[in-house]
Specification:
By secondary structure, this protein is mainly alpha-helical. The chain is built from 3 helices and no strands. α2 (26-48) packs antiparallel against α3 (52-76).
Length: 77
């Protein structure tokens, strides 16, 4: 009986070891992608406006979103 339990435990541990690799934080990656998409939207809006003040505000908002995306990507690793 002990040998069977040892074999079963060994097989279970080997199957876990076979999974390998490091898990990725897909939530953080999804957040980063969302911020990158928002940044692209802000940049597009900045390009399409003729108001210089609005353009600067939108570009700053895009920069903020890109920084947030960078932070989320750093947390994903």
């Amino acid at each position: 009986m002990k040998k069977i339990l040892i074999l079963a435990a060994t097989a279970g541990l080997m199957s876990l070891a076979a999974c390998g690799g490091t898990p990725t934080n897909t939530t953080a990656e999804n957040v980063a992608e969302s911020h990158e998409a928002n940044a692209a939207i802000y940049e597009e809006a900045a390009d399409n406006t003729s108001n210089e003040v609005a353009e600067a505000v939108l570009e700053n908002a895009a920069d903020v979103q890109e920084n947030m995306a960078d932070a989320a990507e750093a947390n994903a690793n």
